[in-house]
Amino acid sequence: MREEPVVVVEDLRFRWPQAATPCLQIASLTMQAGESLFLHGPSGSGKSTLLGLLGGVLLPQQGSVRMLGHELAALRGHARDRFRVDHVGFIFQQFNLIPHLPVLDNVLLPCRFSRRRLQRASRQRSARDEAVRLLAALGLGTEVLQRPATRLSVGQQQRVAAARALIGSPEILIADEPTSALDAERQADFLRLLLQEGQAAGATILFVSHDRRLAAQFDRELGLAQINLAAQGSAA
Ligand SMILES: Nc1ncnc2c1ncn2[C@@H]1O[C@H](COP(=O)(O)OP(=O)(O)OP(=O)(O)O)[C@@H](O)[C@H]1O
């Protein structure tokens, strides 16, 4: 068994280039294996920035981000990219689907870039069948499989993005809530399915949002302002 939590952030400090003050200053943030955490904060408070740091897309000027025992800053760029695709499923705010690629191929993308994800997706059935199963579990029928991502509703795109994040059971699932206005009921419904699938796969789940109404479905809720000393120092 792993000795340390899946996510460990310590003494982190991050400032955007050109910015006068730090965006994030976090003494400590940890997530245990299998835990689901709802992190909320108003628009512009640094949620996406934190997710960029957890994904190793951004590196802090100071402090430590360890994921599954790996210090992200100690990995070279290529190794960091590999770590991310092997172990982290991301649902981006704008979904980042490949526009003209069919739904099925969008979902299978992580399996093209990560042998580990492909192997894990193929454990019980073919990766294709696993993609179909995930889409169905998230409420999308087979009629969308060959449809280009551009021809989907926002809600459907969100589900495709979720299936892509879940395929091959990455240990960590990170979701940046879309700003686009899905109504609260549909969003709660989507979230229930996402958590069901993620938890069945044993994933550690971090979901960020400005909408606290969704928090009840998670093991733990945290306000970014509670842990971000930079925000506390500059509170207007
Ligand atoms: N690429 C960038 N370059 C410089 N500053 C940035 C960049 N991205 C974000 N910022 C700044 O960092 C701060 C936090 O932005 P961030 O996108 O992390 O907030 P957020 O909480 O995710 O907001 P939202 O809920 O609207 O997505 C903002 O002041 C923003 O202007």
From TrEMBL:
It comes from the Bacteria. One of its GO terms (molecular function) is ATP binding. The keyword ATP-binding applies. Keywords: ATP-binding, Cell membrane, Membrane, Nucleotide-binding. PROSITE patterns: ABC_TRANSPORTER_2. Residues 7-236 form the ABC transporter domain. The keyword ATP-binding applies. This is Methionine ABC transporter ATP-binding protein. It comes from Noviherbaspirillum aridicola.
